Amino acid sequence: MFAASLVSGLAIGAMYGLLALGYHVTWVVSRSVNFAQGSVMMLGAVIAFSLLVTLGWPMPFAIAAAVLGCAGFGIVLERIAVRPFRARGSESWLMATVAAGILVENAAMFLFGKEPRGMPSALARHPIMLFGVGVLPLHIAILLTGLGLAGAFLVATRATPYGKALLAVVQNPRAAQLMGIDAAKVTVFAYALSSALAGLAGVLIAPLTNVAADMGFVFGIKGFAAAILGGLDNPWGVVLAGLLLGLAEASVTAFAGSGATVMASFGLVILALYLRPHGLFGRALARKV
Amino acid sequence: MTAPAPFPRAMLRVSRALAAAVLTATPLCAGAAEPAPIPVGLVAALSGQSAVSGEAITRGLAVAIDEINQAGGVLGRPLTLVRRDDESNPGKGIAAARELISREHVAAFFGGIDTPVSIALVPIANKEKTPFIGVWAAGTGITRNGATPNYVFRVSAVDALVDQRLLRYAVTIAKAQHPGLMLIDNPWGESNHAGLEAAAKSAGVSLAGAETFETGDTDMIAQLTRLKAAGADAIILVGNVAPAAEVIRSLDRMGWNVPVISHWGISGGRFPELAGPSAEKVAFVQTYSFFKSSAKGEAVLAELEKKYPTIKGPEDIIAPVGTADAYDAMHLLALAIAKAGTTDGPAIQAALEALPPYDGLIKRYAPAFTAANHDALGADDYIIVHFAENKIVPVE
Question: Among B67, B52, B125, which Cα is nearest to B93's?
Fold first, then answer.
């Protein structure tokens, strides 16, 4: 009976997964995360909307420009809000990225306006019936994109020289540098990739909800919850945790009403972390002293 | 060390001439000074998902103020509007109202679309003895707040009466036997839940059930599925633009073609854009339509077209209820200030309760308010409308 809302929960969960994958990428490379991830997601949706609807660009160009724009933002963010602090061994990147997110959100409110807008999408117009359940083509596209990107990332980091270089930096930055890997460049790349993933999440989710300057905050928090839940070091783990979080939310809404959703889903996150402190799919690393 | 350069003689002459001009002009200016304007306030959503509502209210007030000022103002003083954005947030509304009263010294202030904000402003109006006139928010408890004297008035719909109208439409026009309720999870939703249950009880109609949703919900299929399983054959919807649009999209996804009758929260923003093509199927309640032709309606429309060039006809009035309610409310307030002969809150409050009959835009108020009834509009003043390509037009 509630299959349709579970499908929609899976699609939202895939978005949490994409954001969580973004947190994972910067974490494995630089042991830092971009807490402006939710705002970058909003930025993706706002750029895509402005290009597509306001300026009338063709859809593929608008999406590509939004994702590239977010990647560019990630590069700038790493340069001004992360690198200076990490270079001094400070953890202040944490606050700096939060602040950057708030800054972007307010700039978007100022430039884009505070009124939510509707993003048109041919994939979100007519539901198709799958086993008696109305599913939007966009739901399926989002799910496939989320899983596909997690899979691609896993393959890329395990099987390509670039991916191995990425992981080598975190395991031993000095040794990686001696092997000719530019750790600074790899970190910049990780931030660009992480922001591009968030931007893509924003573009994909926009037709299912609204485009608004404040749309990213809660998504960003939930994406981080998924990342922690899945174990920050495990790309599959964070995406699966995102899907689980989306499903849990949809189930709570279906059986207990939407007033209980946030309480119950974050309650479950705390419970899961209590039982498995390194995340559902994470492993405790042996610390050498 | 060099000596300071002498002040050029020409410059000296210029400054003397300027000083003389200022001295001679000052008494003239003082003599010709405009009388100090009477400030009236507005605390409404000027941004966010309901920003359109705040703009519509502003337009109604502005046109009325122009008319009043052109006719010589009130007590020989022009009226001026001081607006504050509550961002649909009660906390911000409270701060804005306090600021309007203590710093701007407004004679009275108007409210916006959000019942939770208006409910929060009621104690301030009553404590500060400053009349507060609601022109949109319909929560029953806003005017019926138990205070004596009561400084809160309203030229707008009242939930308890709107609920009777919505139910009557669902049963008689949409031929529903078991309407289901979809309500926003806030004081406005609760106010309507009570009103709709009372209306159903007195009409002998059994409701299929009541479900709530949050403002940020992105999927309403679970709630709608429960209503469908309970045998709902119409949906009565109470919510603001964004979540109400999500209800309609969720209905589309379910492939459930059911009549939807909505309170008017959906008219305060870009509902057709957010809800998609099915937005047109939703019937909803309003207090006024500029398609209703009357001499006064045409005159106000002409003024609106003159002042706001994007308006080319009745279909371009973005949220007619806000504009029409605000227009009448401003004129009623001006009458009350004139009758009171002062801008003191208690005198204006007493005058509002004892206004003479007045031919307004929405109807003839005979009178608008009494000591026992602070609501100028009743159930017979409501009309049912729907969206047709972004415009609000009557259903009939």
Answer: B125
Contacts of B254 in chain A (CB under 8 A): 4, 127, 134
- Contact predicate B276/A125, CB 8 Å: yes
Angle A108-A113-A116 from CA coordinates, rounded to 5°? 100
A69 min Cα distance to partner chain B (Å): 25
| A81 contacts A104 by C-beta, under 8 angstroms | no
Whether B31 contacts chain A with CB within 8 A: no
Decide if B38-157+291-378 and B160-286 have a common fold.
yes
Domain B38-157+291-378 has CATH 3.40.50.2300: yes
Q: According to the model, what pLDDT value does residue B18 have?
A: 52
Q: What is the ipTM of this complex?
A: 0.78
pLDDT tens-digit readout, B161-211: 999 999 999 999 999 999 999 999 988 899 899 999 999 999 999 999 999
The tokens of B288 are what? 């006024």
Per-residue 3-state assignment (H helix, E strand, C coil) for B171-201 = HHCCCCCCEEEEEECCHHHHHHHHHHHHHHH
Sign of CA dihedral A166, A168, A174, A177: negative
Please return the burial class of A113, using the count of CB atoms within 10 Å of its CB with bins 0-12, 13-18 and 19+.
middle
The residue behind tokens 């122009």 is: B66
Q: Which B-chain residues 246-275 have CB contacts (< 8 A) with chain A?
A: 246, 252-255, 269-270, 273-275
Q: In what order do the strands lie in the sheet with B283-286?
A: B209-213, B179-184, B234-238, B260-262, B283-286, B383-388, B391-394
Contact B238, B189 (CB under 8 A): yes
Cβ atoms < 10 Å from Cβ of B299: 13
Can you give the residue ranges of every domain in chain B? 38-157+291-378, 160-286
| B160-286 placed in CATH 3.40.50.1010 | no
**How many CB atoms are located within 10 Å of the residue B70 CB?**
9
Q: Is the pLDDT of residue B27 over 60?
A: no
What's the pTM? 0.77
How large is the angle between the packed helices A216-230 and A261-275, nearest 10 degrees?
Answer: 20
- Which residues have a Cβ under 8 Å from the Cβ of A61 and sit 6 or more positions away? A51
Residues of chain A whose C-beta is under 8 A from some C-beta in B? 1-2, 4-5, 8-9, 12, 109, 113-118, 125, 127, 129, 134-136, 208-210, 212, 218, 250, 253-255, 257-259, 261
**Token match 């809302």: residue?**
A5
Domain ranges (residues) in chain A: 15-216
CB contact under 8 A, A114 and B47: yes
Q: Are A26 and A191 in contact (CB under 8 A)?
A: yes
Spatial separation of the C-alpha atoms in residues A39 and A106, rounded to whole Å: 10
Cα angle B385, B387, B388 (rounded to 5 degrees) comes to 115
Lowest mean pLDDT: which of A109-113, A198-202, A268-272, B264-268?
Answer: B264-268
- For residue B57, is pLDDT > 90? yes
Q: Do A114 and B51 touch (CB under 8 A)?
A: yes
